Amino acid sequence: MNATVIIPSLNPDEKIISTVQSLVDVGFDDIILVDDGSKDEFKKRFEEAKYFSGVTVLVHEVNKGKGRAMKTAFEYILNNRPNKPNVITVDGDGQHLAVDVKKCIELLEENPHAFVMGVRNFNDENVPARSRFGNKITRTVFRLLCGIKVSDTQTGLRAIPFEHLPLMLQIDGDRYEYETNQLFAVKQAGIEFKETVINTVYIEENQTSHFRPIRDSIRIYGVIIKYIASSLASTLVDVSLFTLLNIIFGRLGFSNELRIILAEAIARIISSFVNFSLNRKVVFKSKEKFGSTMLRYYILCVCQLAASTGLVYLFSTIIFKLSDGSLFDTLIKIVVDTFLFFLSFRIQQTWVFATKKKK
C-alpha cells in the first residue's frame, strides 16, 4: 500500500502489536508510531513494534495530546516521506481493522484530493449507548450549524492526501479537539469529504480509551461555542442598539418605514463590524487578506440587512399593523435574525472566510 500509517499512542497495551502486525499483513510497509509520553512500563510495546520492517517510532518525552502527536507525524512525513502520496491515521487499540484501513486508502486513491473518513454504523448493537448518543448530537449540531455532513464526527480513521498535510499542521488544537477542528478546516478549505463504512469494534465498552468525557467534550464543543458566542455578542450589540434607536426614532415622530430602516441600519453597521472582527480573528482565524474578507463579508451583510429589514417591516407594519416603536418589533427582529443566522453562518464559513486552495 503506497501510504504511510500514523498511530498516535499513549500507554499502549498488547493490542498495538497486533494492530501493527495486521497492517503489515495487508501490505502496509511504512508505519509511524508516536509515543505520546507513555510511562516507562509501556515503553516496551514500542520497542517490540520496531522489530517489524518499516516501523518508525517518534517520541514525545511528555504527554502532549493526540492532536499534537498527529502533527508530529505529519511534520515528519513532510520532511522524510515526499514520495508517499497519502497518509492515514489509525487508533492503536484494535478498534480499526486492517481491512478497513486498506479500504480507506483505496477510496482515497480513487478520489486523490478528498478527505476520507472510515465511519462506524451507529445503529450497530455493539455501539455503547454513550457513543451513539454523543455522535447523534454532534452530527446534528455540525450539520445544522456548520453545514458539515459527516456520519461519524469522532472517527480516528482518516485518510489524507500528502498535499493537505501543510493545512493539517496549521489547525489549532493538541488534544481530542484537534480532530474536530480538522473537520472545520477541511470544510472551510472546500475539500471534499468521502466516507466508507467500517467494522464497528468496541473492546470492553471502549474502556481503554483515554478520552475524558467532560474535559475533552468541552474542548471539542469549545469550537462550536466560539461560533455561537461571536454571534451572540454581535447580536446583543445589534438588538440593544436597535431597541434604543427604534424607541428614540418613534418618539421623534419618524414614519414607520424610516424608523425601522434607520434603527436597523445603524445597529447592523456597528454590530456587523463586531461580528466580522470576532469571526475573522477568533472563530475562523482567517489568514486571507483583510480587505478581501471584509468586502465579501459586507456583500453578505448588505444582503442580510435587506432580508432582515424587509421581513421585520413585513411582520411589523403589514401583518401585525404596529404604528409606534415597541418591544414587539424587537421580538420580531430576534425571530427573523435567528433564522438568517444559520444561513449567514454557512456562507461565512464556505465563502467569506474560506481558505483559498493553493494551486
Write structural notes for this entry.
This protein is α/β, with parallel strands linked by helices and 359 residues long. The protein has 11 helices and 7 strands. The chain has helices at 15-25, 43-49, 66-80, 98-110, 129-146, 165-170, 177-188, 213-251, 256-283, 290-319, 327-352, and strands at 3-9, 31-36, 55-60, 86-89, 115-119, 158-161, 193-197. The chain has a 7-stranded mixed beta sheet, with helices on both faces. The chain starts with a strand and ends in a 7-residue tail after the last helix. The mean pLDDT is 86.
How do the strands of the widest beta sheet line up side by side? Answer: 3-2-1-4-6-5-7
CATH topology of the largest domain: Spore Coat Polysaccharide Biosynthesis Protein SpsA, Chain A
Low-confidence residue ranges: none
Total tally of structural domains: 2
Q: What is the distance, rounded to the nearest whole angstrom, between the alpha carbons of the first and last residues?
A: 27 Å
Percentage beta strand: 5-15%
Quick description:
The chain is α/β, with parallel strands linked by helices. It is built from eleven helices and seven strands.
Task: Please describe the structure with a list of short key phrases separated by commas or semicolons.
359 residues; alpha/beta; Spore Coat Polysaccharide Biosynthesis Protein SpsA, Chain A; 2 domains; seven-stranded mixed sheet; 11 helices; elongated
